[in-house]
Amino acid sequence: MREIVVDIETTGLDPKKGDRIIEIACLELINHIPTDQYFHTYVNPEEKEIAPGAFKVHGISSNFLLDKPLFKDVAEDFLKFINKSPVLAHNASFDVGFLNHELSLQNKEIINEKIVVDTLKIARKKHPGMPNNLDALCKRYNVTEQKRGLHDAKSDCELLAQVYIELIGGRQRNFQLSEENTSIEKTESITKTINREKRLSINLTFEEIEEHNKYIRTFGSDSIWNINKKN
To answer: Which residues are catalytic, by number?
Structure first.
């Protein structure tokens, strides 16, 4: 199964007020496991100023974006990478809302909400009443020991991929599988021991026992075998 983790950075909080996307990152998952396939680009917001609050979060400046492509130049590649696979995002209404707004401005096909998986909703259901932002989840699941500084979309995708595995119980399933494998190995070991004991079990005939006793008597009365027989 193929899934795509998506994260964006923006000039502000509301696309309806003219805010634009300035960074897009996508990470491919196969059977919930990250691959090395990424889509990542910075985007020129077309003279839209970056709000001070947004800059404090991601640290991306307007000057840095001057030579970056416009959204219309990357939209087709973005859609091609997603390829209608399920899209995972934390607080998906924000990320997917921005993306669909930008796509609609370019008359492109928008992301169908039916294929969107909101990991924030999963986290709230699993941890009701607790902080469930990405920072809190990373700390809760020991996803990273380093303190996060400025946000960037690519790193956030990588972190969210790990958090997602925890939210759906991925490591627990692997742990159980490991226990099952250990159990199988123990069973195989016991079976091999039993079979070995069966192979070592020897049934001697009466004549063979007599021949053996005759052979022992040739060792003399002081031999350990004949002394034991005397006792």
So the answer is: 151
